[in-house]
Amino acid sequence: MRKLDGIVAKGLYVYVLAMGLFHIYTAVFGTFEAYLQRAIHLTWVLPMCFVLYPFAAGRKRQAIETSVPWFDWIFAALSALPGIYIMLNYDEIMMRMQGVDDLTTAQLVLGTLLIILLLEATRRIVGLPLVIVAVFFTVYTYYCDAPFLPQLLRGVPTEFQRLVEGMYLTDEGIFSSSLGVSATFVMIFLIFGGFLEKSGVGEYFMEFAQAFTGTAPGGPAKIAVLSSALFGSISGSAVANVYGTGSFTIPLMKRIGYKPFFAGAVEAVASTGGQIMPPVMGAGAFVMAALLGVPFNTIMIAAVLPALLYYGTVLLMVHLTALRDGLKGLPADELPSIRSVMKKLYMMSPIVLLVYMLLAGYTPMYGAIAGISLAWAVSLLNPGKRMGPKEILQAIHDGSENIPLICTACASAGLVIGSVALSGIGFKFVGAVLALSGGIPFLALILIAIVSLILGMGLPTTSAYILGAALGVPALAKIGIMPLAAHLFVFYYAIISNITPPVALAAYAAASIAGSPPNRTGFAACRLGILAFIVPFAFCYDPGLLLKSTFMGNIISIVSGVAAMAGLGFAITGFTKRRLSLPERLGFAAFGLLALHGSLPIALGSTSAVIGLFLLLRPRADTPEVR
């Protein structure tokens, strides 16, 4: 990102602030019609991409750029024209008949211009992988009857005019529901995040984690897990979370004796899991609610148990590792006291209010506005963090400035969504999955998991999820998987691509802080996050893991989930009351996996086996006492 100064920086500050205020206004008083709201949003964001982000993305010299070259000013101006045309001719566009009325020359030129400039903005901000995927699907839609394509992938091609029409003048392409999520929920939650930071609530998350876990064995690792769970749900970005909390927690973990690669892995896993932890779960969960057509609290409730099992497993493994290796916590005098932290427990109130409003059925936008208001009120109780008019405007600006990444990713993902709708490749993909899996659900799940992991390599979670959902969810629905479980399945695998080598962005970010080998950090992160690879398969067979079964079914799923968490944690660390032998580790691993089996007798029997095996173990004389 360019470091601008002078009149350009001041003008851009006002521009971004105005954008934030507009979105706050629509959150409070109601948004415009969906297509128009999305067009306004993209028109506001796209020029920012060319002003703030250099053409030579990724080069070292971009860090010192303090001015905008003339060609980027031209790109910025041109990128606003397609949206301005929509605003000025909105009624006419709404009255035209898709597939019947011809495009005017202006519409054809502006639509083509928007696609090209959107792809260039995406290249600069998100990276080349998403551009390649979007271009592939768009070109396929035009050439899908090419003779070199396999018969299974051939279809009826779309004329260039109809392709531009579908992408530009409808809400099924660039301006699809994925961009709608950016234009409404994500924007307001980014501003909420700005208020949490300025009011001191974000800082309090770290203090809370330090006070309650810092002195325990492996305390810094537990600080990383707890603080990242709290912070990551709001930030919605695994890499941002790694840099935000890992710069503090990773050096502390290394200080008490954790190996650098393990310290980086803990932070990567904890930060990645923030996107599956309610209440916010990043931008992807809002997209999921829109695609499923369900209230957001439905997604939030379903995600609670898998997220708790994920973090519970990570906490258990860092605790067992600390006990196994004799690692101590931090001295109490270096940490905030529990008493001082509890005195400021009111700092959690914005998050508590948000959770209450979401569970009560209020829209996420109203919940975020209420959280913003309470975050400001909380700041007034802390002299060092008191938010006056200047700080309020700065919080709105800082939150809004982070929108280009998500906005361009969602808009480019819309090119894929539009291509799937126009070309019918989604149906062909369903047929291919069913053919390759032979109609066996488990094999189909494995295929979709691989596709989602590949799509997630190098892509933001939201984009990876949207692409995976467009292709994979119809195939899972065809084999009888519950729609909510199918979407969460794809969502999980899009997220854990952040810790899965060879392209594990969160693990690599953590490795850069820890000074450890990236791939070794990534593989260690995979071991710590093992439950995230397994639980999605389990909840596709057991709705109780999503709290969608009967009351007793939900209770059994909770108990068996905890048994699986314990069994896998013991097996991977090789320690409980003492170091475990290989047969004992294999026993815990087998029973832990079977505890998640959809069959009630097998799940309960395996749960009992995990408990029984643990109780039968006896500490050896050479094992340090476990407290």
UniProtKB/TrEMBL annotation:
InterPro entries the UniProt entry points to: DctM, TRAP_DctM-Dct_fused
Name of protein: TRAP transporter 4TM/12TM fusion protein
PANTHER family: BLL3936 PROTEIN (PTHR43849)
Organism: Aminivibrio pyruvatiphilus
Transmembrane segments: 12-32, 38-58, 70-88, 103-119, 126-143, 174-196, 261-292, 298-320, 403-427, 433-457, 464-484, 490-510, 522-539, 551-576, 588-617
Keywords, alphabetical: Membrane, Transmembrane, Transmembrane helix
Top-rank taxon, per record: Bacteria
Domain TRAP C4-dicarboxylate transport system permease DctM subunit: 114-548
Regions annotated as coiled coil: none
Keyword hit for Transcription: no
